[in-house]
Amino acid sequence: MEAPDHYVVDIRRGYSTKGVDAVGTTWALAWHFAADGKADRVVNLSGDQHEMDAFTWANRCRASHFLKGPPMATLIKQPRIVDAAGTPPKTIREHVGRLNTATTAVSLARMSSPPGWAEPWQMPDFDEWTLVLSGSLVVEDDDGTHVAAAGETVHAPRGERVRYSTPHGAEYVAVCVPAFAPNLVRRDDA
């Protein structure tokens, strides 16, 4: 682990004498020392490897992030173009998500959808909120049809059958939780 002089990583090994077998465990304390030499922050990493892994991944996979504290604001300078389903083709610009920022918790994408675009029915494993910027978006589900106009938002819950189309074209922003991934869409044509 890379750490400047004002960090100390204290790794310990412990054993239990209770029960049938003596169980060994390992844990680590990551200490941060202020300029006056006093400890001002400590992170206790559990002996449970799964818990340690989850903590590390949740803190951006780098020791420097959890030793220094949460990361500061990040500027995402440009989106990444993502392949789109449906015809005629629409343009998906992923600003936040699995491809552009390696974020799995949420995705944020801007869509430019031409008149006449439609995609197959799907039953996604994520919640999706769609804010229409211009034009209108038609959202069909098993209960009927919703038409979202500019300034309106529609929510499609995870696990519900849904179909999107733009008969007259639209610009819109989609937010998915967890982040969009092709294998989570579960389209009827797949």
Name the features.
Jelly Rolls; 12 strands; 3-stranded antiparallel sheet; single chain; 3 helices; mainly beta; elongated; 11% helix; 190 residues
Give the structure's gist in a few sentences:
The chain is mainly β.
What does this structure look like?
The protein is mainly β and 190 residues long. It is 11% helix and 43% strand. The chain contains three helices and twelve strands, in the order βββααβββββββββα. It has helices at 49-58, 63-68, 182-185; strands at residues 7-15, 24-33, 39-45, 80-82, 91-96, 107-113, 117-118, 127-141, 144-149, 153-156, 162-166, 170-177. Strand 1 (7-15) and strand 2 (24-33) form a beta hairpin. The chain is elongated and about 65 Å long.
What's the order of the H and E elements?
A: EEEHHEEEEEEEEEH
Tally the beta strands: 12
CATH superfamily of the largest domain: Jelly Rolls
User: What is the structural class?
Assistant: mainly beta
Shape: elongated
Return the average pLDDT rounded to an integer: 81
**Unreliable runs:** 59-67
Distance between the termini: 43 Å
| Count of discrete domains | 2
Strand content: 35-45%
CATH uppermost class of the largest domain? Mainly Beta
The second-level CATH architecture of the largest domain is: Sandwich
Main sheet?
9 strands, antiparallel
Number of helices: 3
Helix content, binned percent: 10-25%
> What is the CATH topology descriptor of the largest domain?
Jelly Rolls
Give Rg in angstroms: 24 Å
